[in-house]
Amino acid sequence: MTITRQQDGRWAVVNDAGETVSVHRTNSEAWRALDRLANEPINRREDIADWAWRRSLG
Question: What is the mean pLDDT of the chain?
Answer without folding.
Answer: 91
